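Comment on both lines for my students:
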Amino acid sequence: MQFKRAGRVGLVLALVASTSVFAQEREDRTLLSQAQMTSIINEVSGDRAMQHVLELVPYQRVRLPGDYDKKFRETQVITDFAKEYGFSNISVETFDDEKKAFQPTVGELWLTTPKSIKLFDIHDIPLSLVSLNANGDLSGELISLGAGRPEDFEGKDVKGKFVLTSGNTTAVYNLAVERGALGVLGIVANSPQRAIDYPRQIMASYLTAKPGTVAWSVTPEARGYLEALMARGEKLTIRSVTKSTEVSGRSEYVHAEIPGDGSTRQEVGISCHLFEGVIKQGANDDNSGCAMILEVGRAYIKLIKEGKLPPPKRTINFQFVPEISGTNAYLNKHADKARAMIGTLNFDMEAIRVAASRSYWILQRTPDTFPSYLNDIAQSMMEYVSDITRERVRFRRSINGYAPTQPVESVHGSKDAFYIKTDKHYGSSDHVTYMQHGIPAVMFITWPDMWYHSSDDTPDKQDPTQYKRAAVVALGGLAALSNGTDDMAARVVAENLARGTGRMGEAQVKGLGYIADATPADLPRAYREAQIAIRHQAEIEKAVIRSANVMWTDAASGKKNTSAIEPLIERRAAALLAEAKATYQLEAAQHRVSAAEPALTAEEREASSLIVKRGPKAPAPGTRGGPRPTGPGLPDEYMAEFQYLVDRGNMTILQMRDFLSGEFTPLSLAELTATLKGREADGLVTLQKK
């Protein structure tokens, strides 16, 4: 008895001592030591990253034809800084060298009657000219066609005229020129709110014009002005003057490294896209990601030299690429790198001032079709920075007073709150390409970005403080990922296990919500959906632990070290399922209905007998092409995972439905079956009986 009491006293003293060692709360911890994180925070510079972006894309500009015969400005800026900062193995490689493209050199849009006004010039707003190949001096009357739908053309003579529309420039152009129009003045807006909030903004859009025609995008403000003139009876005449020249359509990327110590063949990556087509230049999308990871490399190299961070065991690959195509070109050409990489952090749109854009800085996790240890490294770093940069009222009487625990702010940056969010997978950036090559990858992105893909995507919208915070997260995550020791592997597995417990709890919350919200007649179905959500998440968490085996110096040893964890996850899932059953029984008793175990319906039995495989006309996984689906589709949030599951093959329709329902929210089996049968008719999938 006395021994037990002494043991408790010792434990209390140990906890007190532990608390005194850490100036911050225990929740303010991550995978690196607090001293290492403090060194990172002190070294990384949001102002330096801002300087990088000002060198990369100080303003949106029309490239000269001669620019296509040498390294692009952005490439030269990255390579010059990389050499200055001490990166290793810096290289520039090109691809698609045989391709050709068009570069406009002159583009002027004039209102000529009732008065002479230059409306747009590509040297003022490069994105205003949509048809990059247009050549000619065209004049004609301007008529308004509203939204520019097919029915809006009925009874209208557009031959030899320009069409003004509130519709999408590209869509209306195709309708107008086939009816003899000279060209279109339209707007490109992802939402009506953009036109209201930013009436002088032009969204990026491109098309190949037919000879003797032209397509322009105008601002909502300019369109409104022209509409107002016509509304009061004015006859308007438009003149379009354009010249373009054929140039090389080649693409190029920059690769640089911080080398590992040679103890392992494993490597890791950090990526951004330096180009998104060479015509469109975006400060935030995504020169910001490149400016930021360049600063991450500089700071990492300096901290290694100073002994504040250990040299990485795994080589770190920095990729500055044309979006998606550049990553694919690099990994295809350097298959040895693709095999060696065990994880990549992708940064796409990092530095918008979040308060001005009503934004969050978001971590997009890997999809459930690709469960990975990597998510928790990224999330841990992001939450650490968020916690220490906010003022917590419970600390107001402590040494911190009314202040953040450890501000992460830049000299010339804002003091905005760090709004963060961890979200489900979304595609459309380079992280997807890495996963198509078998490499786990997450994406960090600022969303919404009110100036994304537009004439307003310029450096004045950016915030050095946001650069600094993103760089701290990136460098911390990269240091953990490249560490290459069994100690770090064990820490990562512990992080996976702990956060996985939380995710299983979230799955239970979701499932019990289905039960609580169900009508008496729908209770059995809701209970089954709760079971699906919990079981799905348990399988994902077991796969996450297995994925972390690559973090150990010997994967086989890692598997042995973590062999006891999967049964524990299964045991936890059983407890959660028992709680779901108790909740189901409670609700059934409340409604005075039976709490029988739900049985498969005839529709479910049929779906469980049909295996989904890729069809004869399906493009290769990760590529585009093939016929466009003509039948029904699923809501957007399901589509990326739906395609991954189709490409994977050998799942029944019911298994696919349960996977998608478990990852997201319940999906109608009838809706999924109709989508698959439509794609079967298009040759994109085949449905085979077991």
